[in-house]
């Protein structure tokens, strides 16, 4: 565990020195928070009278995790091409330690960014009005999501051959972001598009976060969110381990 902690600290320090990570994980979501609260708070329909920020803030934490993950994948790719990954693998460490360190470091970075984003959300109306248990559930859920994205993008970075391939994930992330009820309530989407929005994993996560912090269903969205995270993590772990063994 001490080796994982050291490597996680290394990952955090490298991320802090990378301007791209800061922009994609924190600056971009904060700008979106400001723009959407200024432009749409008073005009966007809010079912149940729920404050617009209650849905927007969890989506922006997801946005920071996903777009920041692209920078992580790029860093993993560079370390592989520059031989840093081989030097780390040559250390007398148990199998999987380097992978675990990267994932833990990225998860901590996303959670810390989520703390900043949630604090900024408090300024514009976000609240933990469902009690301490709901707030704890919110952070546990976001930690699980952060770990899932970390593992996914580490796997991507270990498998691709060029940074350009990583950039191909950008359109998919934008689709997941905008076809979710974070920016626009489900009812505001065209009828033919609502089924697509409902199966978007972001929707389950946002609905679960809403139920944990304010009001609404919790069990169904939370179970779907956990199932999505576990399935995605399992697939990513298999890909990452196979890529590690193939080197």
What is the H-and-E element order? HHHHHHHHHHH
Strand content: under 5%
Largest pleated sheet: none
Mean pLDDT: 83
What is the domain tally? Answer: 1
Tally of helical segments: 11
Output the radius of gyration: 18 Å
Low-pLDDT regions: none
What gap, in angstroms, lies between the N and C termini? 24 Å
SS elements, strand count: 0
What structural class should be given to the helix and strand makeup?
A: mainly alpha
Description of the molecule:
This protein is mainly alpha-helical and 247 residues long. It has one domain. The chain contains eleven helices and no strands. The radius of gyration is 18 Å and the shape is elongated. The two termini are 24 Å apart. 40% of the residues are buried.
Task: Give a quick set of tags describing it.
247 residues, mainly alpha, 11 helices, 0% strand
Ordered list of secondary-structure elements with their pairings:
Elements: H1 2-16, H2 19-40, H3 52-81, H4 84-89, H5 97-123, H6 132-159, H7 163-167, H8 169-178, H9 191-199, H10 201-213, H11 219-246
Helix pairs in contact: 1-5, 2-3, 2-5, 3-5, 3-6, 3-8, 3-10, 5-6, 6-10, 6-11, 10-11
Concise structural overview:
By secondary structure, the chain is an all-alpha fold. It has helices at 2-16, 19-40, 52-81, 84-89, 97-123, 132-159, 163-167, 169-178, 191-199, 201-213, 219-246. It has one domain.
